[in-house]
Amino acid sequence: MQPEAAVSSEFPSVISDDTSQTSAYQAALFHLRQGLQALYELSPGKDREKKDAHEEVLVLQRQILQLLHLHFSPERETSGARSFGDVLRQHREEAGLTQAQLAAFSNLSISLVRKLEQGWNMPTRATLLALCSVADLKLVPAEVTTLPSMREDSHRLAPNCYLSPGFDAVSMMTELGQQMNGSGGAIEQTYIYLDPKSALDWIQLANAPSYVAAFRESMPHTAIAKCIRQVLGPSGLDLIALGPGDAKVEVKLVQHILEEIDRPNLRFYLLDASQPLLSRGFRHAVDTFNDDPRIFVCGIQGNFHHLPRYLQLHYTPARSHRRRVYMMLGDTIGNLENEPQFFQNAFSGAAPGDLLIFDVGYAFSDSMDPTDIYRCDPALSKPVPEGLQRWLGGPIQRYCQGAQNISFSYRLDVHRPLAGSYGLQFIAKVQLLGMTTREFCMHQIRRYQPESLTRCMQSLGWEQVGLFPFNGSSTRPKGVFIFQKRTPKVPH
Ligand SMILES: C[S@@+](CC[C@H](N)C(=O)[O-])C[C@H]1O[C@@H](n2cnc3c(N)ncnc32)[C@H](O)[C@@H]1O
Questions:
Q1: Where is average pLDDT lowest: 17-21, 88-92, 437-441?
Q2: Rounded distance, CA 347 to CA 358, Å?
Q3: How many Cβ atoms from other residues are within 10 Å of residue 246's Cβ?
Q4: How far is the CA of 95 from the centre of ligand 1 (A)?
Q5: How far apart are the CA of 332 and the centre of ligand 1, in A?
Q6: Considering only Cβ atoms within 10 Å of each terminal Cβ, which end of the chain, N or C, has fewer?
């Protein structure tokens, strides 16, 4: 329980005990905001003209609100001259949280939350910080709400970027350096995106015209979005992109979801371990959706192997109609050490009904027949492409002391946990000063047998609800899988 003696003066925007300003202005503000909300909810359907008209009406209504602020707001307009309790209750209700959930997420006692809402207690600075740390509450911690014409946009200024508990990028870079200067071995895929140069090299690869045409543009976005709508209906969605990188693929998919779903109510979380990639992806998402009140964007620097630790993403409200949609796109599943273990561990917080979407490359031949794989898989008949060598060789050049020369080749890995699947390992042979050599497996990609993937997911409690093959301009067939978490069977 927190002592509530000292009232914070650092958050004038959310605290106002000046009730003398309640006025016709407040009433007008209230009704105009309600009007705006109602307009947002008015679905114009798919007709282009109607959509444009809807947008125009929204713009006009926003302008009216701004004019009201500019010409009629009292000297120190705050978030209305309402009490802090009213503001808190409104934000909590808009976030769809109960008082108990808010207490749990902010680490405050439920009785304190009640007293704050009822106006019996005023918040201390620590209490305000705790409340502002609950992303969904969108409580604005500074004086943003005192700025005329900014109020309606204040959700943009709410805290929307998080560093996950226990995440330490500096230690990860130290670990990478240690491994580069050890005796060689496999580099876990998280490390090859971490530093800014690795991120830049990866961005260049992923945006090369051939890759964009083969994968990024050919992904069946519309079919995936329609499938989500059919399976989940009109529920609010928490779209959780795991490893979004520059987020081009994920943002495009979310745009299709917005198109498909009536009255969307979306929260879009981008979780990536690489700070440079996260800031790139987050900025792209915010630039794309910033004006859209139907979606809240949030960046999280974190490790998807630690997903169950991130409770903000995994609470299960008693009466929630929201569903989570985990997205792991761009072949990310195929870079992991052990896919079944990852599915089992990382998604242990998924609730029945949640969706998991990922794309993978298909096998050209069975893992039991390596000769046939060498014959059929086009990658194996060519040298490792230059762009990949630049990206994967970068960490060796930067962190492996005495590295003189690096040569890359493929190695076939047929000892995979998923039946029928095989992997291509990118092996770097490094020549060091003094004529010694060291070998690293810098990266791995996989090819899967769709049926075995489906069986594996089924055994882990995930039902396949969609499968969309695609290959764009590439000769490498791929598929997007959509799985839904089943309700566990109750033992008799
Ligand atoms: C193959 S890229 C895919 C990027 C993007 N989804 C796309 O389709 O273009 C993998 C992404 O996962 C991120 N990543 C790798 N390991 C991670 C981890 N352990 N936790 C969080 N993100 C990770 C990388 O930083 C990178 O952005």
A1: 17-21
A2: 13
A3: 24
A4: 29
A5: 6
A6: C
Helices (H) and strands (E) in the chain, counts: 17, 12
Q: Which of 274, 303, 333 to mutate to test the pocket of ligand 1 (most atoms within 8 A of CB)?
A: 274
Give per-residue pLDDT as tens, 76-121.
444 444 677 888 888 888 878 889 989 988 888 999 999 888 888 7
Q: Which sequence spans correspond to the domains of the chain?
A: 24-154, 160-492
193: Cβ below 6 Å to ligand 1?
yes
More confident residue, 143 or 457: 457
- With bands split at pLDDT 50, 70 and 90, how would you rate the model's confidence at 172? very high
372 phi, psi to nearest 5 deg: -65, -35
Locate the ligand 1 atom nearest the alpha carbon of residue 245 and give its number: 27
- pTM for the model stands at 0.72
Burial 385-404 (b: 16+ CB within 10 A, else e): eebbbebbbbbbeebbeebe
Ligand 1 atom at minimal distance to the Cα of residue 202: 2
- Determine the topology of domain 24-154 in CATH: 434 Repressor (Amino-terminal Domain) (1.10.260)
Would you say the CB of residue 226 lies under 6 angstroms from ligand 1? no
Q: Return the DSSP state at 22.
A: -
* CA dist., res. 7 & res. 122, Å (int): 6
Arithmetic mean of pLDDT over the chain? 85
Q: Ligand 1 mean position to 362 CA, how many Å?
A: 20
Tokens standing for 46?
């798919």
Which one of 164, 172, 175, 193 would you pick to mutate in the ligand 1 pocket, going by the greatest count of ligand atoms within 8 A of its CB? Answer: 193
Phi and psi at residue 467, to the nearest 5°: -145, 120
**Multiple choice CATH, 160-492, 3.30.70.580, 3.40.50.150, 3.40.50.300, 3.40.50.970:** 3.40.50.150
